[in-house]
Specification:
This protein has 586 residues and is an alpha+beta fold. Helix content is 14%, strand content 31%. The strands form nine sheets. The chain has a five-stranded mixed beta sheet, covered by helices on one side. Strands 1-33-32-31 form a four-stranded antiparallel beta sheet. A hairpin with a 7-residue loop joins strand 31 (522-527) and strand 32 (535-539). The chain is globular and about 65 Å long. The model is unreliable at 1-17, 74-84, 102-120, 137-208, 211-236, 288-295 and 560-568 (pLDDT under 50).
């Protein structure tokens, strides 16, 4: 139930496709389509809820904001019932756009021409999207701390049967614009019983969530047929745009500042790093359609602060996460120029807020040691002076920002992965634990007290791994996304646990769950800090998914909170204690 075996093509078919790239692409497309249909059928058994939303343009970045708002009356989002017990919650996501543009020079709106043939430059945007979902009623989900949201599997309007008949992955280097408007709304399909939402003609299931209410006969008779052949029900969840800010070029990455979530840093195709104070920008929703954009002049990107110093494009950046006063505005970035740079935007933001206009700043420090592209950086969660970086040279470097920049890093891991090191992240609680991922398709755990060899290697992806993120609510849970179109959840407490021969065929015991809802490679994902086990992810095929695995997936068999002695004798728990440790920062 936790994992699905990968389908294999017949050897004769593989041999025929080996010398024909077009045939191989068609076979891969059909395989992806078949895998998606199988995943769709199994959603009721694997998830508490799944929300699928079509984006106008693909997004390369995704991060939940820490905000949460309770809407007392469920009727405000069309929730079933409308009583005060049917309340809803509003969560917000930070996304970007990656458009196809022409005649853009100097790093502005980079691209290869518009797919619609209009010859028009498409503006990129930094966007805040709002997710609303009904809550209340019975049911699990969210790890017990929060009841399951009323969001279910969703289908976007105007994209008929795309999630079924035409669910194929676009080419990796193709950026496709949706033809159905800038913000297609999500239409909820309720499925109180799996069989009641099964479409025999298409041989797939429409959607499911744990707390779906049974549709009434009156509403079913009056509503129009959905794209899965079922009656559309009143909405219990939707995703829409809250803010659109013009951005120079595609948004490679965007991250909010922990001390003030209105302050957001972003990267584009140019070398500059942009810092925005969202509270000083309008929503930008007055004109959002493609027709309006064609008849009006393109808006001008106006970041509050420009960090200028890099000489190449980049993706990685991280804010100092601690809430101390000395951490406010401290930002670390990396780029293709093989450098890591440290910035402090605090004074620049104050000057801009005082009416000084856009402020351009230079880096406080520049760290040089990498010999190839620096892919990612992170800031230690317990040590205000420690940052980490990784790159295509196979190095993982740990820096002390107080040291002279002419000195080498404090610690260096050479050949950390067999190839490029794509991402790293420090553990939020354990000060000695570090996770990295690379092009060798694995995730590695490192003990910073002994960096000669990895503490453990997590194997389960079938293509290079792009990013790793620790869970904000459970210190033993880690997630990773990959070019294999999967988001994997890992439970370090299960390392070394006994497995049956059948379970071992599906992967190691620590591989808790594989999310297979994307039909193209996942570009970024984020844990929701206000909703346990809820993850939002974006992929190259213009799709954003918000989902929460079923409680049966992560609940331990035979949990007994009162039996502490037996838990201490569990080999898996003992191995977890060995990895995580009990050390606390003095």
């Amino acid at each position: 139930m936790r994992k699905k075996k990968k389908q294999r093509l017949p050897p004769a078919l593989l041999f025929r496709a080996a010398g024909n790239s077009e045939l191989a692409a068609q076979i891969e497309e059909r395989l992806i389509h078949q895998e998606y249909k199988i995943w769709k059928k199994n959603t009721p058994f694997l998830y508490d809820f799944v929300m699928t939303h079509g984006l106008e343009w693909p997004s390369l970045t995704c991060q939940w904001l820490p905000t949460r708002r309770t809407l007392a009356d469920g009727n405000r989002i069309g929730a079933l019932g409308g009583s005060s017990s049917n309340f809803a919650e509003q969560h917000e996501l930070l996304l970007g756009t990656h458009t196809s543009s022409s005649d853009n020079a100097g790093g502005e709106d980079g691209g290869e021409g518009n797919d619609d043939g209009g010859g028009r430059s498409e503006m990129n945007y930094l966007m805040g999207r709002r997710r609303r979902a009904r809550r209340g009623g019975g049911g699990g989900g969210g790890g017990g701390a929060n009841p399951a949201a009323g969001g279910s599997a969703t289908k976007e309007e105007g994209k008929d049967e795309e999630a079924g008949e035409n669910a194929s992955a676009p080419p990796a280097n193709k950026r496709i614009k949706s033809s159905d408007g800038p913000s297609p709304k999500s239409v909820v399909i309720d499925a109180p019983e799996p069989a009641s939402n099964y479409n025999e003609e298409k041989d797939e299931l429409g959607g499911y969530h744990a707390n779906a209410a049974a549709p009434s006969s009156s509403s079913s008779s009056s509503s129009s047929s959905s794209s899965f052949g079922h009656q559309q029900q009143p909405r219990v969840g939707k995703i829409d745009i809250r803010m659109r800010i013009p951005h120079e070029g595609e948004v490679n990455r965007a991250r909010y500042m922990p001390q003030n979530h209105f302050v957001v840093a972003s990267r584009g195709p140019g070398p500059d790093v942009y810092v925005w104070d969202l509270s000083r920008h309008s929503s930008g929703l007055a004109s959002t359609s493609a027709d309006d954009a064609a008849t009006s002049s393109s808006p001008t990107p106006c970041p509050n602060v420009v960090c200028r110093g890099h000489t190449g494009e980049g993706y990685g950046m991280a804010w100092c996460p601690m809430l101390d006063d000395g951490c406010y505005g401290r930002l670390v970035t990396c780029a293709e120029d093989m450098t890591v740079r440290l910035w402090n935007v605090r004074d620049a933001l104050s000057s801009n807020n005082a009416g000084g206009g856009q402020v351009v700043i230079s880096p406080e420090s520049t760290f040089r040691y990498h010999t190839d592209v620096v892919e990612d950086v992170d800031w230690h969660n317990r040590d205000i002076n420690m940052i980490g970086s990784c790159g295509d040279d196979g190095l993982v470097c740990l820096w002390d920002v107080r040291r002279d920049t002419s000195l080498p890093p404090l610690h260096v891991i050479r050949d950390a992965h067999d190839g490029d090191v794509n991402g790293l992240e420090f553990h939020p609680i354990n000060e000695f634990l570090l996770a990295t991922c690379g092009s060798d398709r694995v995730v590695k755990l490192w003990d910073m007290r002994n960096l000669k060899s990895p503490l453990h290697t997590l194997e389960g992806h079938t293509d290079q791994v792009f990013a790793v993120h620790w869970s904000p609510f459970d210190e033993s849970i880690l997630a990773s996304c990959s070019a294999d179109r999967r988001i994997a959840l890992w439970d370090l407490s299960r390392i070394g646990a006994e497995q049956s021969a059948e379970d071992a065929e599906d992967g190691p015991p620590e591989l808790l769950f594989l999310h297979g809802g994307h039909t193209s490679r996942v570009t970024d994902f984020s844990w929701n800090p206000n909703y346990e086990w809820c993850i939002g992810g974006v992929s190259e095929d213009n799709v954003m998914q918000v989902w929460c695995p079923a409680e049966d997936v992560y609940a331990e068999d035979g949990d007994d909170d009162d039996d502490d002695d037996e838990e201490g004798k569990d080999p898996a728990m003992m191995h977890r204690a060995k990895i995580l440790g009990d050390d606390e920062l003095e």
